[in-house]
Specification:
The protein is mainly beta. The protein has five helices and 17 strands. Strands 9-10-14-7-1-17 form a six-stranded mixed β-sheet. The protein is globular, with a radius of gyration of 19 Å. The N and C termini lie far apart (about 50 Å).
Length: about 350
């Protein structure tokens, strides 16, 4: 019953899916896609997956499944890396405190991290799993307006009334205290050009459906004809310690700020580097897997994933009360001007 609820009840209509927990690997300022080789990327990230994650991750020389010695994910053959920005609470005195992540429904013992989905279809059609060296980004941290955010279609927030809330998604940050936290939802493009494992902006080789959505069976554009799984992140940010509105801004606005300097939430984005072992993901996509139960895949308990961690390369405080966002990132508006 538990696996049924974890998959089919949360995603009615999906013919099969993987839904699994990946605990926190590390929180640090590295971004091997946008600033490869740089120790101290412009903003802070939270990273999950295999422990081969590093500042460079050159696909010509790095084979994640062979280099990694552990993974934070419960599917033990997944050494991919997944990462997003980090949420902060801004107090009235202008200081910042990192918002912790917590385990999602049925994964409560996870040490932070995220819930990862790979959904092959809502219409019983086949998909092509990602290939070694594949990587992509969705969203744009420079976006600050609804009009710009709408082109990504499915990067949203859920104000959790309880852990099972899956309705009333918004493109911008919730405006009121959320009783069970804020869940960030990042759904990646589901169409591939069939040729390139990456592109200069890490996004041009993939596309959302030409019309409609993946869930509706929207067709892929001719430029990106190959259907790939829907990669989907759910990150539960435990905002509940900050739900006292007397501590929120005096003008009544919401107090949460992203590590890339965004208070609107429109700049939501996520990064992905494929690292499944062998053809395990393709096998899973061709099989009627149900949530975190997939007999064809090797499984490890969440407590084992919790043991897989890395020490940050950059020595800086990201957990205390901070006078500024890590890296000195300013909080900016749609015109690029500092908000505070």
């Amino acid at each position: 019953m538990r696996s049924y609820l974890a998959g089919w009840c949360l995603f009615p209509g999906a013919s099969a899916l993987l839904r699994f927990s990946c605990s926190q690997l590390v929180v640090e300022r590295l971004d091997p896609l946008v600033t490869p080789g740089v120790v101290g990327s412009p903003h802070l990230h939270q990273i999950i997956g295999g422990n081969a994650f590093n500042a460079s991750m050159d696909p010509r020389t790095l084979d994640l499944p062979s280099e990694a010695t552990c993974t934070t994910c419960t599917f033990a053959e997944d050494f991919s890396n997944y990462w997003t920005a980090v949420m902060f609470f801004r107090a009235r005195n202008g200081t910042y405190k990192r918002v912790q992540q917590k385990g999602n429904v049925y994964f409560e013992e996870s040490n932070g991290g995220m819930t990862i989905y790979y959904i092959p279809s809502y219409n019983n059609t086949s998909v092509t799993a990602f290939k070694p060296g594949f990587r992509m980004i969705t969203g744009d941290p420079t976006i600050r307006t609804r009009e710009e955010a709408e082109r990504y279609r499915q990067l949203t927030y859920t104000c959790l009334q309880d852990p099972m809330t899956r309705t009333n998604e918004t493109l911008d940050m919730p405006k009121e205290p959320c009783p069970a936290g804020i869940m960030a939802n990042l759904r990646f493009p589901t169409c591939w050009d069939g040729v390139n494992l990456d592109s200069p902006d890490h996004a041009g080789h993939v596309s959302y459906p030409e019309s409609g959505t993946f869930e509706e069976g929207g067709p892929c554009p001719a430029s990106h004809p190959v259907k790939i799984p829907q990669l989907f992140y759910e990150i539960v940010w435990d905002t509940t310690p900050f739900n006292d509105k007397s501590e929120w801004p005096e003008d009544g606005s919401q107090p949460f700020v992203w590590s890339y300097g965004d208070i609107s939430g429109f700049g939501s984005h996520g990064d992905y580097v494929f690292g499944w072992k062998g053809n395990a993901l393709q096998i899973a996509m061709d099989t009627n897997c149900n949530g975190f139960q997939c007999p064809e895949l090797k499984y490890q308990e969440i407590r084992e994933g919790n043991k897989c961690t890395k020490s940050p390369v950059l020595d800086e405080d990201v957990d205390g009360w901070l006078d500024e966002l890590p890296g000195g990132m300013p909080v900016t508006d749609a015109n690029g001007k500092s908000v505070f």
